[in-house]
């Protein structure tokens, strides 16, 4: 049964455990959804803005990427009133000019996930969401600006490819992705971005290169990826703090209007 959501937030951060330290005055809440129960959501303030933090993999990183309840997570944030989402992702570099620790703000994506529920619209009315601009341009602009201010290498243009996981990719797969024009690879960026757009929410991602993709160096170990992720945590938190404070109060992008333009057949409620 869907529960009430008495608390509100305007901006959400989705990422790994530990980023909740960004928030002041933290509350922890559960939000019921028709798609199951998401992990605990943290509510607080950042730069005077009401912010929700959702640990994508649950507390203690206990949920693998192919088992994340993406629909429940996005739906819960929508019920809290969130209009903007900033996601963080650890990624592998496919583009050989990218290096460990680089920040990446992708502008496009390719979906190679296989078995994840990827839409809220399985029934009538039929919806074909416009996804010609997968990431919100307003949030992307702020992410790029604040990443540069942090004196970090920031890649402004990148194609993110999402794989199913939980295994890492093969060298042949990485060569294929490079031939397709992909720059970084991860396991969690889809269907988050799609689901957010279906609910009229702005979504953009701040990625950081945690490893060179398969075939571009030595073998990949999860421990090394996690170690770099932990070391990058304070830097990511600093960038996010600046981003949240500078996201415009009023949206001027088209992310919120896409759904009304995507219906086919008889109009109905989402």
Summarize the structure.
With 270 residues, this protein is α/β, with parallel strands linked by helices.
Q: What series of H and E elements makes up the topology?
A: EEEEHEEEEHEEHEHEHE
Which outline best applies? Answer: globular
Secondary structure category:
alpha/beta
The largest pleated sheet is described as:
11 strands, mixed
Using DSSP, what is the number of strands? 13
Give the N-to-C terminal Cα separation: 18 Å
% residues in beta strands: 15-25%
- The CATH homologous superfamily is termed Nucleoside phosphorylase domain
Count every helix, treating DSSP H or I runs of 4 or more residues as helices: 5
Oligomer class = single chain
3D architecture notes:
The protein has 270 residues and is α/β, with parallel strands linked by helices. The chain has a single domain (11-264), classed as Rossmann fold, CATH 3.40.50.1580. The chain has five helices and 13 strands. Strands 1, 2, 3, 4, 5, 6, 7, 9, 10, 11 and 12 form an eleven-stranded mixed sheet that branches. Helix 3 links the parallel strand 10 (159-163) and strand 11. Helix 2 (137-149) packs across helix 5. It is globular. The protein starts with 10 loop residues before the first strand and ends in a 6-residue tail after the last strand. The model has no long low-confidence stretch (mean pLDDT 91).
Topology:
Elements: E1 11-15, E2 24-29, E3 41-46, E4 49-55, H1 70-79, E5 84-93, E6 103-104, E7 108-112, E8 126-127, H2 137-149, E9 154-155, E10 159-163, H3 171-179, E11 184-186, H4 192-198, E12 202-212, H5 222-246, E13 263-264
Parallel strand pairs: 1-4, 1-5, 5-12, 6-9, 7-10, 10-11
Antiparallel strand pairs: 2-3, 3-4, 5-11, 6-12, 8-13
Helix pairs in contact: 2-5
